[in-house]
Amino acid sequence: MDIQIQAIHFKADRKLKEYISHKLNKLDTFYDDIIDAQVFLKVENTSVKENKHIEIKVNAKLNTFIQNETALTFEAAADIAIDALAVQVKRYKGRMIEH
């Protein structure tokens, strides 16, 4: 799977990018027809502590899955978002098998 990670208005370190890539590659175990993924990282300027925002867009053969999350850290936001994407992918694959 081709993964593109874009940090908006800051530079993401290598460890964060590797962490997100490693987690996203696990989605291939649920559905083989995933083509690529785009990840957008953004720090929101708010007074709330949970200001790390992540948006993940996964393109599959016939569908696109999108998930947005906000948390204290990018790692926590990525975990929540990727878990939600795994549920979406499993549900979609189940519907494809039924048809």
Write the layout of secondary structure elements.
Layout: E1 2-8, H1 14-25, E2 34-43, E3 52-60, E4 64-71, H2 74-98
Q: Mean pLDDT, rounded to whole units?
A: 93
Q: First CA to last CA: what distance?
A: 26 Å
Task: Please identify, by name, the CATH architecture.
Answer: 2-Layer Sandwich
The structural class is alpha+beta
What percent of residues are in strands?
25-35%
Computed Rg: 14 Å
Main sheet makeup: 4 strands, mixed
CATH superfamily: Ribosome hibernation promotion factor-like
Which fold does the CATH topology refer to?
A: Double Stranded RNA Binding Domain
What attributes characterize this protein structure?
2 helices; 4-stranded mixed beta sheet; alpha+beta; Double Stranded RNA Binding Domain
Give a short synopsis of this structure:
Helix content is 37%, strand content 34%.
Characterise the protein shown here.
The chain is elongated and about 50 Å long. It is of the alpha+beta class. It has helices at 14-25, 74-98, and strands at 2-8, 34-43, 52-60, 64-71. It has a four-stranded mixed β-sheet, with helices on one face. β2 (34-43) and β3 (52-60) form a beta hairpin. Helix content is 37%, strand content 34%.
